[in-house]
Specification:
Layout lengths: L15 H25 L2 H15 L2 H7 L2 H4 L16 H13 L14 H18 L11 H44 L5 H31 L4 H24 L3 H4 L19 H18 L9 H8 L3 H11 L4 H18 L8 H7 L5 H12 L3 H10 L2
Helix pairs in contact: 1-2, 1-3, 1-9, 2-5, 2-9, 5-7, 6-7, 7-8, 8-9, 14-16
Length: about 400
């Protein structure tokens, strides 16, 4: 990269300073995540730290460029060490979400095959540096023979294409993993851990936006108009802001709650969940479930899950899941939240809002977050909790 600002390094200006500050702050949270990994063996923390470090590392050429590095050190060899580690970003995105959504996740040796491209590329970059360093006049130039005639001419464009294809594939796999997991949670757990799931979704959307913006910028720069370095700066800035947000949010979001969820509800999933039953028998079971929910109120436990409820009812978990889905036409999450919403309505009708906040009432009735409560209440009653509470207040 040829610097456009004619200053002496280090130059702190409108372009270099924001990138420097944002990336350095993001690296602080990467170090905190690494510390968490070494203390608690928290694999998601390690993967997220690597993502932040790699994304921040890719801002190096622009940050030092706008700080006048290339003007000050004309024969710098730093371009050899600005390696496209972005080949590892796609796999890391996938394994970050997988490590959160898989109980007892362990990084297996077989997974390293996903990182073969980046390992090969690192070896290649070292090789061309070693070769160019042995050529006459290398000390007098910034880029040697292979860097110019092989790397910049052929390899970098090819790697760019591979990166884009790879990111499309891994983003697709990762979004599929996320949405399948979110759907699965609704079949097993009475609260859907909205905070953690929203963080994962935001994390994926941020990296998707950065990818799409880089592709858009590349298409404009290659096919329409040659973009100035100051125009390409915006992608660097958005990336720096993104990794700072990811560092902060990722550090303070406890993903272990998702990581520790257990979906093993049956020892043999291939067997039928229960013997064939007559309509009368199924109706009797449905009535028994309704009576148990109304009398024992297990839904008041915010951590109630399918396995626990099946043990209380002495019905196998697969059979209970099937009855809830077919008999009540609801997934487990909606089934339990229906009773919680009814409990909230009853407390509001009794005027409990005079002594407790809406959120306090929701927590008393088994909800574990304001967002989950609001969403469930509006879906079931077609009105918001606050509107319903206002209506009840007018009756007193």
């Amino acid at each position: 990269m040829q610097q456009i600002l004619l200053y002496e390094f280090p130059s702190f200006n409108l372009y270099s300073t924001p990138l420097l500050i944002l990336v350095l702050q993001a690296f602080v949270f990467a170090l905190l995540l690494l510390s968490r990994y070494f203390k608690k063996k928290d694999t998601p923390a390690l993967i997220l730290a690597l993502l932040i470090i790699i994304t921040g590392y890719h801002r190096t050429s622009y940050t030092i460029g706008f700080m006048a590095w290339y003007d000050t050190f004309r024969n710098t060899k730093i371009n050899y060490w600005l390696i496209a580690l972005s080949l590892a970003v796609g796999p890391l995105l996938y394994f970050y979400v997988k490590s959160i959504t898989t109980s007892g996740f362990k990084f297996k040796k077989a997974y390293f095959i996903h990182f073969v491209p980046v390992f090969v590329f690192v070896i290649y970059k070292i090789t061309i540096f070693v070769y160019d360093a042995q050529q006459p006049g290398f000390d007098q130039t910034q880029n040697g023979y292979l860097k110019i005639n092989l790397d910049e001419k052929y390899v970098q464009p090819l790697v760019g294409i591979i990166e884009n294809i790879q990111m499309i594939l891994y983003l697709g796999f990762t979004f599929q993993l996320y949405y399948l997991y979110r759907r699965k949670i609704q079949q097993f757990f009475s609260n859907t851990y909205a905070l953690e799931l929203n963080w994962m979704r935001a994390f994926l959307f941020i990296y998707s936006f950065l990818f799409l913006y880089s592709v858009f910028e590349g298409v404009i720069g290659s096919l329409i108009v040659d973009l100035h370095w100051t125009q390409r700066w915006w992608y660097q800035f958005f990336s720096a802001v993104a990794i700072l947000y990811i560092g902060i949010k990722g550090y303070f979001t406890d993903t272990n709650r998702l990581h520790n969820l257990d979906f093993n509800i049956a020892s043999n999933k291939n067997k039928k969940s229960h013997p064939e039953k007559s309509n009368n028998e199924l109706l009797d079971i449905k009535i028994r479930i309704q009576q148990f929910m109304e009398q024992e109120k297990p839904f008041l436990n915010p951590d109630l899950n399918l396995t626990e409820l099946s043990k209380m009812l002495k019905i196998s978990a697969p059979a209970l899941s099937e009855i809830i889905n077919s008999g009540f036409n609801k997934n487990f999450n909606d089934f339990v939240n229906h009773y919680r919403v009814q409990a909230v309505q009853k407390m509001l009708e009794e005027g409990k809002q005079k002594h407790l906040s809406l959120l306090g009432i929701a927590m008393e009735c088994g909800f574990n977050s304001k967002a989950t409560f609001n969403r469930a209440f509006k879906r079931i009653t077609n009105t918001s909790p606050s509107q319903y509470a206002t209506t009840q207040n007018k009756l007193f």
